[in-house]
Design goal:
The protein has two domains: 15-74; 86-189, Sandwich (Hypothetical Protein Aq_1857, Chain: A), CATH 2.60.300.12. The protein has six helices and eight strands. By secondary structure, the chain is an alpha/beta fold. Helix 3 packs across helix 4.
């Protein structure tokens, strides 16, 4: 008896539904050349319509759908504890430690913040920080410090900070369950 794998993402799924339900697949979709993912341009199209509008064949669409489902399956699993302010993956912690060493900033931590801007209203920011500011929450994970101001923490509560490497580049990325709408780049939201 053959066992069939049920796909979470299908070619008939709307792009906007994929973005909302499976944000971990956005980078994979964007790597195909579909750059309008989070900007509202073609989000009401199905994945198949969006890909075919970018010159893909039916065979290409089938392959990409497999890749999208693989991205969802292989996304880092993070156990979220109820009420946890901010979750930081091990990959983000390890990469921060490496970057600090390369840039000779071993005494610093990483400031995680939300500020106005980006194509969706707010954008995430990251910078080195050497000391706690008034109103900051400081999370220490595996000896690495993450600083978050009160206003940013309210918008980030329950979010996950990760480090991703893709065709579009590499960097820290936030998965924010509080965002009502986000850009496909993962750098802005509302």
């Amino acid at each position: 008896m053959t066992q069939t794998t049920i796909q979470k993402i299908t070619k008939d799924m709307l792009i906007i539904d994929m973005i909302e339900k499976y944000p971990q697949a956005v980078d994979t979709l964007m790597s195909t050349g579909v750059q309008c993912v989070g900007c509202g341009a073609a989000t009401q199209e199905t994945i198949e319509q969006g890909l075919m509008a970018h010159g893909m064949t039916s065979s290409d669409v089938e392959e990409i759908v497999v890749d999208l489902n693989k991205a969802v399956k292989e996304a880092p699993k993070v156990e979220k504890k109820s009420g946890e302010a901010l979750i930081v993956t091990e990959k983000a912690v390890d990469k921060l430690k490496q970057i600090k060493k390369e840039q000779k900033k071993e005494d610093c931590g990483l400031r995680v913040l939300v500020m106005p801007g980006g194509c969706s209203g707010f954008q995430y920011g990251f910078d080195f920080e050497d000391k706690k500011q008034d109103g900051d929450t400081v999370l220490e994970v595996k000896g690495q410090k993450f600083f978050v101001d009160k206003q940013s923490l309210e918008m980030l509560h329950g979010s996950t900070v990760d480090y991703v490497e893709s065709l579009e580049g590499a960097g820290f990325k936030i998965e924010n369950p509080n965002a009502k709408k986000g850009c496909g780049c993962g750098k802005s939201f509302r």
